[in-house]
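Let's do one together. I've listed all components of the complex below, 923 residues spread over two lines.
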Amino acid sequence: MIFSSLLITTTALLAQQSSQWAVDTVHLGDGQTMHNVLITINDGKITAVTQNADADDAQSVANAHMTPGLIDAYSYMGVDGATLEESRESTASLKLSNSLRFDAPAFGYASSEGVTSAYISPASMNVIGGLGCMVKTHGGQVASLFGDAGAAARLISDSAALKVTLGGDPSMGNHTGSGKWTTSYTARRPNTRMGTVWVVRREFYRALEYVELRDQGQVAYNADLEVLAAALSGDIQVRVQAREAHDVETALRLQEEFGWPRMLIEEATNAHKIAEMVAREHVPIVTGPAFDSSSRSIARGPSAAELAYAAEPGQICCEDYHAPGEEHVNESGKLELSEFALSLLPAVAPRYEAAPGLARGRRSEGSGSTPALPALLADASVKFAMGSAESHDSPLTESSLIYQARRAVRWGLDKDIALSLITSVPAQLCGYGDSLGQIKTGFDADLVLWSGDPLDPTSLPLVVIVDGQVVADNR
Amino acid sequence: MRLLTTLLVSSCFVASAAAQSGSVAVKAAKIMRADGSVIEQGTLVIENGRITAIGGSDTEVPFDVLLNEYPTAVVFPGFFEAHSNSGMDRANENVPLAPFLNVKDSIDPVSFYFEDELRGGTVAIGVMPGNNTVIGGRGRVVAPSGMTIEQMTLSDDLGMKVAIGPKNGWSRSSQLAELREAVAKLNLDLRELGETLTYDGVVREDRKKAGVEDDDEAADGDMYDSAGGYIRFGDDFAGKELISEEDLDDTQRGMVDILNGDERLWVYAPSATDIMHAQTWLTAHGLLDNTVFVVRSSAHKAASLLAEMERPVVISGDLWHVQTNPITEIQTKTFAPLVLHEAGVKFAISSEEGRMGPDRLAYQAAMCMREGVPREAALAAVTTNPVDFWGLSDELGDFNLGADGTFVVFDREPLHAQAKVLEVYIRGDKVYDRKDDTRLQRLQEGTK
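Okay, and this is what the predicted structure of the assembly comes out as:
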């Protein structure tokens, strides 16, 4: 009885009345922009996109812009606490959706900033972490007694992609100890990058063998190996998290070895260093949050002040002993530096980082990263989308996906490309290219109405629509 | 001792006054004032570091001043960081009562922080000791440019940090008890000192009468001389007028400066409760008029109290306040600057814990506009208000005649998402040029 009433509620949510929106500027999501457009929504779908049409009862806000609902191509929303089974380093058949907190605040933060769909990734502490899921940020069933109906994420795929992690994360904190401790239950492998890759290869070779034996009916069903087999055949996308450039190269080598038909690289913090190679291999990328607090980065080298000083040496002196501009003799405290000492100064001058973690990048990886990563990847014709990783866990708007796009534009990315990287491109990369990420007839009615240009920081998401239903209204 | 102090003070003064002082004139597509008003095809003339003329394209430029023309750019006074603990290796000394500290001794001119601020168009920063303290020491206003602290200093008289919000690991009770005890102990010490000085004075008079020569009497005055009202707070007590600066130690001198009302107090009161306690303490000592409140976003709950006190407020950290209902777990977000603005509080934004890198003040001002704060108030929060709180309105913050010739050349309107800082001038001297910013170029091109 309860179950059936739940079903009715869900159906009621999806079966929306029709509505019409008259919008000044519409960013279709595929890089195109239209003006003076009437958008008709019926039963959660876009049923018409007409230019210069009139409708008396259409809703409208002067000078507003409309974009498709944003799609976060790489996120950890709702992934709280222990979500990985760490007793094994390969847990291919585990589904993240089984432990996801669908009414986590992150989904609300994301939807109020215009994100309507997201790919949620398993965490990165296992080499093969399991199956990530695809959700709408609104329309699900809340677990909280007090939550508004529909104010939770709605699962649209529980097996969207298989997570494989390269780099430092799967071996971080692992140890094998020495002596008797090597047999302790706390000992865990892998301990190195090469150990991590070894686990990937071992598992996929087991899967190849399994497929052969399975086809001959000689082996019992194995859930993990079934998932790996689906990855090998291309039925499931393989998402490889790799931050350092050499980890990205490792991912490319593994793809060559196993022929994964659908591989995507996550984060790729330093991929700009080998952008041409990635573009040549036609491997798509989903970038991580290039600019959140733990991953802000700065190129190394002498500071501008040091460079300026080296170019035009001034006097290093102490105000306690004399006033600047005053003539000095050595006894008065003036420090006279020789040409040679001056040339050494940039190297020896004490230097502090602007903030802890800044130069170290994300979890000590990607030290050479740059906020210009999206612009550099676009220049090299790499196919990629943008993700926000943990960013939406915080209510700060500085963390939102649209903000990532704004920053990318500020660092040189074309505006239309930037919008497509958070709408149509992630939809394609996540396998929803024919229903999400564009304002087009037949697509899901996931829409965001902005008070101005969506890439302008003074613009507010006025109305957020998921499956035709208004989920946030700031008009 | 007094002579040495005078020397030190005067040398400090000379140091800050003798900063950069170039002459330059600019003609730009737009000159944007701090309130957002725009002079189309404007001209700005700076001579010897000071603004001598501002106006339209017909404004006369002296023949001996270098003229730079920016036919498409916007010239803006720049952004001002009201209160920051950055640019120092550590923001607080371990000892809770440290009025003798000065950020001068900790600021690292080659810190990346200053470089980043400059790159983002911030032209002056109020560097204060951190909030993890009871009385933290003195701060100063610096420009994010220069190899020495003297070159950077715009004002060495920013004020003293007092924290009402508890130090790490402390309770509010211990914090306030420490503060009360500091004052009580000072008063006790001063009374003891007064008694000693009175008694010593009597003894000396007796010795003089008896014709005994005093060896310790110096020609230029000594501890027995009256300071003529050095202590100007609290009740009268025996020997109060005999106490002079030289009789006290550094901690006592700092406390006396505070209680005399000679210091601008940057009172860290993060939450609404702390603001209430701060008001009580400050009012009891007659110090409310010297106070700038440094608050966090939850202080929006004390908006009416802050408005009533008519004191300036710096919002530090996140601008959003998030509260979770303990029963329903439903979270509510409040945008603190909007609440403060609507209550009539004059506020500045500090970006010290912002998450977005060098241009965050611009972003936060844009954020304020997005959430409904009028453009003028949002701009003031990062320009004229911080400068006003520093007491430097005549010199910084806007293009006024006689003010410092400090400005930033943007390629478009400063709060625009893609606005780039092209050049920065401080007191008429060019201190930043995007073309020469090798680190920025490295970031844009990516290190290979």
